[in-house]
Amino acid sequence: MTNHFAHVVRGSGPGLLLAHGGGGSVEGNFGSILDDLARTHTVVGPDYPGAGATPRSTGPLDLDIVADELVSIAVDAGLERFAILGYSLGTGVAVRAATRHPDRVTGLILTAGFTKPDNRLLLAVDIWRELLGGDRKLLAKFLTFAATGEKHLNALSPSELEAAVEGLAGFIPEGSPEHVGLVANVDTRAELAGISVPTLVIATTLDGLAPPVHSRELAAGIPGAELVEIEAGHGIGVEARDEWLGVIQKFLSASVGEGTN
């Protein structure tokens, strides 16, 4: 497994580390809000193996190693302490990073996440993994069907829907098999009670991949966690970009705005 994740460093101010989703990337998952976050924070965004410019891993990914590497990248970028914004699989990475490096992490923002995949998510991962070996457009159709909120999906014209599927098919990172393998193995349930930093959990209420029950479980397990529910599917950065950014900024300024870089 590579220990050299490609990453972006943007902006100035308190530290904010990004942990992206499985089959995603920093640009793919956070691109719509990156510029805004960098206006107030030093944002460090690493891409997992096989995403962005990071070489693909030669073996399975390990949650401890991924979490440690993200923290190491943030420290190397000059951040002594930082909040972590995790999305989907990245919520597991963020929780594990806070568990293993409590002296570094000032707060957690966990979006569209889960503690451990349930049968629904495991089935989705199995289909995802099998389709990766074949027709990428069929995989893109499946992910669009499973992940997009009903309101957003049904508001698309036929040409917009086709463009969305084609765009997703062209985006699928080469490291996706290892990413979805990691999704299947995440289990942070035993760690949640030990998280002592301010935590915001953002549930995506129209999400067919990580339904809000998962976020509610995260929030219930972390002492003092705040739960916000946003009407969006898994692709919150497209479907509810302004609302997502707004609750992130409010939390960062109120809870961890005094963090040092």
From TrEMBL:
One of its GO terms (molecular function) is hydrolase activity. Keywords: Hydrolase. The keyword Hydrolase applies. This is Alpha/beta hydrolase fold family protein. InterPro entries: AB_hydrolase_1 (IPR000073), AB_hydrolase_fold (IPR029058), AB_hydrolase_sf (IPR050266). GO terms for cellular component: membrane. Residues 16-236 form the AB hydrolase-1 domain. PANTHER family: HYDROLASE, PUTATIVE (AFU_ORTHOLOGUE AFUA_2G14860)-RELATED (PTHR43798:SF33), MONOACYLGLYCEROL LIPASE (PTHR43798).
